């Protein structure tokens, strides 16, 4: 069943209103009709099964049939901190990691980041990234849209690490701890109802420098490996996130 996110103010006691591109999508692309059913979410706490009552060019009105218990969100809250990659790779990271279960994205710039940061293009790019997160969340039947922060400087990323229960940095030269090892205590805590916050830091195409690894470890991150194979920057976050979801029981319960 198709799912749409709406602004909380569009969520009434008995009806909901769907506007803009979503309204056009319902009417023109999906060719929906009155009495067709949808699932809507305000992205915060309310989710409902609704029945379309009226379709207009810029607005779809639907009556609430049943309030639902949001069920599409993982218990572990994972932030993908991604050093800005070249081309459209960040879009791929946001789309796929949203589907897998990321809670938020924190783009950042590191020493070997190739992308040139242009504040004049930032607003347009941010809108594009958030649209991708919204569409991916709808496709995956998420109850919330992951947040996408503005690109941060390296020192800003380091300053954020204390906000997390666990911060890991993926480093291809790390042959000691593996992600599974550091996740065990968090999986045990989750069985008791905890919802830990985890950050995974991914380097750019050229990887992190040794100095950066020293700095991020000093700031509280744990350096981990993802196996014996070297992964591309756009692949590493997806692999790490999938491992986290599996090890914390998020890929085996329906």
Automatic annotation (TrEMBL):
GO molecular function, one term: rRNA (uridine-N3-)-methyltransferase activity
Pfam families on file: Methyltrans_RNA, PUA_4
Catalysed reactions listed for this entry: uridine(1498) in 16S rRNA + S-adenosyl-L-methionine = N(3)-methyluridine(1498) in 16S rRNA + S-adenosyl-L-homocysteine + H(+)
Keyword set includes NAD: no
GO biological process per UniProt: rRNA base methylation
Protein family membership: Belongs to the RNA methyltransferase RsmE family.
Protein name: Ribosomal RNA small subunit methyltransferase E
Native source organism of the sequence: Paenibacillus woosongensis
């Amino acid at each position: 069943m198709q799912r749409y996110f709406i602004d909380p103010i569009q969520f009434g006691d008995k009806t909901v209103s769907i506007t803009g591109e979503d309204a056009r999508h319902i009417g023109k692309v999906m060719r929906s009709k009155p009495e067709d059913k949808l699932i809507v979410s305000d992205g915060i706490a309310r989710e409902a099964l609704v029945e379309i009552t009226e379709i207009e060019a810029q607005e779809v009105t639907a009556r609430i049939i049943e309030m639902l218990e949001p069920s599409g969100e993982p218990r572990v809250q994972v932030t993908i901190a991604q050093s800005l990659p070249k081309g459209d790779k960040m879009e791929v990271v946001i789309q796929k990691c949203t589907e897998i279960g990321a809670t938020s994205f924190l783009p950042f710039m590191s020493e070997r980041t190739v992308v040139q940061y242009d504040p004049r293009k930032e607003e347009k790019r941010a809108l594009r990234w958030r649209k991708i997160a919204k569409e991916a969340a709808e496709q995956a039947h998420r109850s919330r849209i992951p947040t996408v922060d503005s690109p941060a400087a390296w020192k800003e990323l380091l300053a954020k690490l204390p906000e997390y229960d666990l911060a890991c940095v993926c480093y291809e030269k790390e042959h000691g701890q593996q992600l599974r090892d550091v996740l065990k205590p968090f999986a045990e805590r989750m069985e008791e109802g905890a919802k830990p916050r985890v950050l995974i830091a991914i380097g750019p195409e050229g990887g992190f420098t040794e100095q950066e690894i020293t700095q991020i470890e000093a700031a509280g991150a744990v350096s981990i490996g993802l196996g014996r194979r070297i992964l591309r920057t756009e692949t590493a976050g997806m692999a790490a996130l999938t491992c986290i979801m599996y090890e914390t029981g998020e890929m085996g319960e329906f």
